[in-house]
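As the work plan foresaw, our protein records have gained a C-alpha cell line. A representative record is set out beneath this paragraph:
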Amino acid sequence: MIDDNGEQLGVMKLQEALGLATEQGVDLVEVAPKAQPPVCKLMDYGKYVYQMRKKQQEAKKRQTQVQLKEVKLRPKTDEHDLQTKLNHTRRFLANGDRCKVTVFFRGREIVHKEQGKEILDNIREQLSDIGKVEQDPKLEGRAMHMILTPLSQKRA
C-alpha cells in the first residue's frame, strides 16, 4: 500500500485499504497487479487521468508534422510556368515540408521519357541550395516523380 504522497504504508488487507481510502476521500488504485502481494496506491483517480491527458496534449502540441506537398508538371511546360512551379517548390522547402515533383506524360509523350528526366534534373540543380533529393526520379506508369527534402528543418 502506498499513500498519495508516495510513502509506503506496508501490507494491509483489502477492507482496511478501502476504509483508509474512503476516510481520506481518495480512490484505491491497483498499480502492480502481478506483484506478490499486489501493490495499490491511494490517489484521486479523476485528477490523475486529467493530468495524463494534459501531458499528452502538451506533447502533441510540441511535435511538428512534416507534410508532403506536390508540384505537377508536363514535359511541354513552358519556361515561365516552370519558374512559377520552382518558386512554389522553393517556398514548400523553406517552410520545412517535403516536396514531390511529378511530371505527367499524356498520349505519345511517354515515348520521350528523357524530357521528363531533364526537367527533374534541372529542378534538382536549381533547388540544390535549399533542398536535397530524398528519392531519385522514378517512372511509375505515366508519371515520373522525385521527392525533395529541405536541407534544414525550419518550421514557422
